[in-house]
Amino acid sequence: MAYEGSYIKISNITAINNKLSAELEYSEDISKFFYSKLFNVEYNEQIGDINESILTIPPLAAVITVAWATGADIYLESIDKTFFESLNKIKSIFMNWFPKFSFSTEYHIANYQTNKLNNEGYGILYSGGLDSLSSYIKYKEEKPSLISIWGADVPLDKTSFWDKVECAVNKLAEMDAVNSYFIKTNVREIMNENLLNEIYLDEGDMNWWMSVSHGLILTSLTVTLPIKNLIMASSLEGEILFPDGSDMFKLFDYSWADNKLIYDYGLTRHEKIKYLLKGNTQYYQFLRVCYAQFQDYNCGMCEKCLRTITGLLLEGIDPNKSNFKVKEGFLDLIKFYLENNLLLLQDEVLYWEDIQNNVPEKSDIEFFNWYKTFDFSDYNYQKNIKKQIALVYYYRKYRGFKYTVKLLKQRII
């Protein structure tokens, strides 16, 4: 069959034992956005007897945002009708978020099928981060299965690190007598995310994975699992200030077949520490927030680690019990970073202001009395990338907070 114009075709979808695969065919003009023509997913359990209209959901979710951006048409045999209706709702939201997208995609689908899977129970997309761990604590009475995805935040070549992640997930599952599902996928190795960023996203802090595709892709990978209610933790609260690839789930009820997504939002990041993590001491050992490296469970050096440690200290939680290595002088280092504009990129200030808003009128820790009055409105974000590289280098090399401050004063400021 000859195709006209830009197109993406999904075909030869197979589900054998525990592996799902699909072939991708695309027109020459959009081939620059792809690295591979094979989409695959591997589960730690066998895939049940599921029809093609459901099996098509993961590969379609992987490529649909590229189709919307480029205007490529979609060709496939069958799709779940409820999921397709959800896609149209996401598209209507994205049309306001991404003005550079074409959205001229036409669908060539032979069969829209209504499905009823008759699943039961809960599952949760679980990374071990503060958001997913807090949502797990919130819903733990429902005994949600833990669903962890290799190939999302942890690259496929980081085998040793993934072994650590899997070990921690299994430990939690055993402790609370819940199921654990592990999914391995090449989905992030298929697309040229950097080129998509460059052409279709505005300059700034947006990136394809976090701003556009992660929510749709991660949820889609679970459709073969025997769960009815999928929990996904939000990372941002309040009004949607900028595009986020899962925050659109705040705006409509996302579902496929007779399953649905529970998008867990309502608490800020620090409120999750304050109201969900605090006091649940048995869960401190499972916290993994770091995406800056894939050696230590948490590096303790990147902005996200430093922010989390600061929040834990405010709530009286020992960070050393949460997979951090915190030495004397840590808060002096944070103060130094903030006073010298060394720490934050512009989109990160919201999280630090969140911590600030939770500081009591009078704290027993002197740093927080100072921090409560720190003015972020005067913060200079201009040279932070180079300075962040420098501060991480010295911290990594010397592993001491007080000595790091001394070196920074001598060599950076």
Can you walk me through this structure?
The chain is of the alpha/beta class. The protein has 15 helices and eleven strands. Strand 4 (73-80), helix 3 and strand 5 form a beta-alpha-beta unit. The N and C termini lie far apart (64 Å).
Write out key terms for the chains shown.
413 residues; alpha/beta; Rossmann fold; 3 domains; eleven-stranded mixed sheet; 15 helices; globular
Number of alpha- plus pi-helical segments: 15
| Spatial gap, N to C terminus | 64 Å
Please indicate the count of domains. 3
Q: Percent of residues in helical segments? A: 25-40%
Largest sheet: 11 strands, mixed
Number of strands: 11
Provide the low-confidence segments as ranges: none
CATH class term of the largest domain: Alpha Beta
Strand arrangement within the widest β-sheet reads 5-4-1-2-3-8-7-6-9-11-10
Query: Please, what is the average pLDDT?
Result: 91
Structural category: alpha/beta
Quickly give the CATH architecture of the largest domain. Answer: 3-Layer(aba) Sandwich
Percent of residues in beta strands: 15-25%
CATH T-level topology of the largest domain: Rossmann fold
What is the global morphology? globular
Order of helices and strands: EEEHHEHEEHEHEHHHEEEHHHHHHH
- Rg (CA only): 22 Å
